[in-house]
Structures are given as C-alpha cells and as structure tokens.
Amino acid sequence: MTFLTTDLSDAHPDVQVADPILRHFGGSRTFSGPIATAKVHEDNVIVRATLETPGEGRVLVVDGGGSTRTALVGDILAGLGVSNGWAGLVVNGCIRDSAAVREMGIGVMALAARPNRSNKNGFGELEVPVFFAGVAFNPGAWLYADDDGIVVADHALI
Fold it and tell me: Cα angle vertex 48, ends 30, 100, to 5°?
C-alpha cells in the first residue's frame, strides 16, 4: 500500500494530524494500520507482552507519558514486532538500540533515544484511548505515517 500523508490530509480534512514531536527510528519510514494502544509509565512489560502476540498489520501506539527517563522499546521488542507482523510502533517516550532498530523492517517513531532500560513491574493499561501530540489515538482507528508526519482517521482511508 502506497500513500502520502500530505495527500491523505488534503483529501480528508477531518483527519487528525499529529504535532511534529516524534522522530523516525525504524527501517520502515512509511507504515500504516489499525491502532492498538498501551498506556505505561517507564515500564515496558505489557508492551513486550503485546508485541509477542500477532500484530496482523496493526500499529502499537505506546503512551509513555512523554517520559524521557527510560527507553520503552529496544531492538528485542522491535524484533518481536517484526516477527509477529506489527506494522509499526509509535512511542510517546524513548527507544534504545537505535542503530539496530534502524535496520529492522518496522516503522518506529518516538520522542528520542535513551540507553537505559525501563522498569519491569508490569504496570499499565491496554486498549484504552491515549492522547499526545495533539491527537486522540483510539484502538481500532487507523494510523498513517511517513516522512511528513502522522495522520489518524476513524476508519481506513485507502
């Protein structure tokens, strides 16, 4: 599937467009799919558990509350995403192992890279609406990302 977020935004003026606060880290700079969500704080246990399940072309949106104190995704979790058919990860927080993640066939966008790992307590919520970058990310909505940014729609646009 090929698309440009600029064209989607022009053709569908009712879509949400994310504020440009996230950077590309993954090997796939263009990705899309239905949204799955995780809401965590400096703890990635449920992120890993989710990426261990079949992604079926979905995009996991992880709201880490914007914390830059720990990384929520690294090469092991991104690799799980690739192996299990996830199209991408959007992280309101940090990733690590950025050089390795850049070589993987998955879209990964995050605030920044940080070398230290997250906590492992298992706290967080799955499949709840999350809000960051000026956008409401609702489970089941569609996310489209490329070099120009992120567009979110209530339904598939293409």
Answer: 50
pTM summary value = 0.98
Distance CA(70)–CA(92), nearest Å, equals 12
Q: How far is CA 28 from the centre of its chain?
A: 12
CATH number of 5-153: 3.50.30.40
User: Residues of 113-124 as b/e, b for ≥16 C-beta within 10 angstroms?
Assistant: bbeeebeeeeeb
Helix (H) or strand (E) segment spanning residue 90: strand 88-95
- pLDDT tens digit sequence for 111-136: 999 999 999 999 999 999 999 999 99
Q: What CA–CA distance (Å, rounded) separates 74 from 96?
A: 5
Query: Facing residues of 24 across strands?
Result: 109
